[in-house]
Amino acid sequence: MLPISYYVALSAILFTIGAVGVLIRRNAIIIFMSVELMLNAANLAFVAFARLHEAISGQIFVFFVMTVAAAEVAVGLALIVAIFRSKQSIDVDQLSSLKG
Amino acid sequence: MTPDLIVFIILALVSVAAALGMLFSKNAVYAALYLILNFVSVAVFYLILGGSFIAVSQVAVYAGAIMVLFLFVIMLLGAEKLGPNKTLVWQRPLAIILGVILGIETLYVLFAQASPGTAASTLPSGFGSPSAVGQVLFNQYLLPFEITSVLLLVAMIGAIVLSKREQ
Q1: What was the ipTM of the complex prediction?
Q2: Per the CB < 8 Å rule, is B49 touching A69?
Q3: What is the pTM of this model?
Q4: Chain B residues whose beta carbon lies within 8 Å of the beta carbon of residue A73
Q5: What does the alpha-carbon distance between residue B57 and residue A64 come to, in Å, rounded to a whole number?
């Protein structure tokens, strides 16, 4: 069995990539995917610590994170579709006005 | 180099490369496919870490349902090709510098101050199996589970309301 810190380090790297993705990309869908990547990195850390402490609760939390991610994607993609209908673009730099 | 370490390094390279591929691909469909590769490799990590049920639901829910939704919306909007973006020239280098700082800080805290240690090599039998997960989920976490169902219902209503055309 490898040290748990390897898995947590990988999770930190994936989280960092996701955070950089949110900052540098301007396409709303790619930004959403980066958020999913960050949630996934958090899940990896949860499962790694569940393995370390032999506590099944860590895996339960992964379930809740997955559910929240699914809800977030459903609402977020509906928002993106609605924005695309009115603006004909999903570039977040275009969405600078408060009133459609 | 134990076999564990070799497997870990290969899988870690695959998942990091897939994440970077998602970050830098010009086509949104390719980005979604890279993200699916990343989710599947993380699911293999879950298997190594003794979360067999979590690994299967990761593939089914994340790589299956959520990413199909993403691909569906990308193709529905026809937003595969992404135009160049040059509105804030200083933003990209600044974001990369800040991201590198964040990563270095996290790894420093992890390895220099709070190293979690090594897990026991053997697990109690049935750890992470569907029955073990279900026992804890429906006894200890019953209320959060029910709240989750309300959350999903609200998300479903929200998606329907948002995507309904205005009269």
Answers
A1: 0.92
A2: no
A3: 0.91
A4: 66, 69-70
A5: 12
